[in-house]
Model the fold of this input.
Amino acid sequence: MEFPTLLYHGTSGEFARKALREGLRPRSLNADAQDEGKLSNPDCVYLTDAYPIHHAALTSARHGDPYAGVLEIDVLRLDSSLFRGDESVIEQLNRDSDGLSGSREDRLRHYREKLENNFDDAVLTLDRMGSVAYHGPIPAEAISRIAILQADPPILPVSWARDISVSVANYHFVWMQQFAVTEWVMNDRWPRFDQTNDIYRFWLGELMNYDSRQGIKVSEAPRYLAPADVVNA
Done:
């Protein structure tokens, strides 16, 4: 696959606006981070090509933030040598074939400690489940745009994204759904999937009937967006 020039990070509205000033920091460099129960690498920032609204909805709910934030990342402004695979994807791909025993949590810890920066691994996990890890902070100048979405009460695109379950097994169908929602939120257009089966065309046809931009504010350049801007969008 061709590695995209744009990826996304989903978080709460507050953290998204903070990132415009400070960049995106991994948990190990973020005093506000909540580590309890987290199995992801504390030294990495995770990016996706399809699921930022899903992650933004979950994070905003966890922090009691009525707004969700999506940050668009210019990959060309990042150091390609700092990309690595997402360990949760590698764990699923190797399940039942790597000889590892123990719980899923134990297996994730194994891969989190084993994986190193490797662009080929990043390409693999992006292709197989739409996510990659970046080892270290992402500078503010790599953030090309920000979107703030009303999450409480949730607008329909947030509801669509929030309740999905993402795995290697269901990735291709869920990716099409979530990629379409992300494309519409960020660019106010639905993507065209020319080579799809009848089920996909039916589902996307139903989805594309939605056209309200209420509760969505997307910047054309990074800037602070007050919550009032979202409510009155």
Q: What stands out?
A: The mean pLDDT is 85.
